[in-house]
Amino acid sequence: ADEHVADSPYPVRILPGPACLKRCLVTGAGVRTALCHTPAEMLVTVKDAFGNSLLGNVLKALPLQVELTKGNISFPVEAAEAGESRIRFSYKLAQAGFYRLELRAAGTHLGESPFS
After folding, report:
1. DSSP 24-39
2. What gap in Å lies between CA 105 and CA 67, rounded to an integer?
3. How far apart are CA 55 and CA 111, in angstroms?
C-alpha cells in the first residue's frame, strides 16, 4: 500500500555542486576592447558541472587570479560580486596600446584566456 512514513513527504533542497572551470562564461566588452580613461568591464558567470548557478559568495567559490599587463607592467583590475552567480571585473587605463588579460583559477585559464 502507498502509505507515508512518519512526517513524509520530506522537503529536499538540491544545491549546486562546486564551481566548474569548463562551464564558466567570460563576457563583456572589456575582454577585447577598452577606451582610454573609461572603465572597461567584463563578467564571469560561474556554474557547476551541470550548468547550475552557484549560491552565495562566488568570489570565494571560485578564487580567480586576474592579470592585466603590458610588457612587464601590471595594471589593477577590480572584482565585485554582480549577483546571479556572476563576478564583475573592471579596469581603467590611461594609455592606448596592446595589453594582455589573463583569467585563471587554480592555474587553469578560463574561457579563451589569455585575451590580448
Report:
1. -EEESGGGT---TTS-
2. 12
3. 21
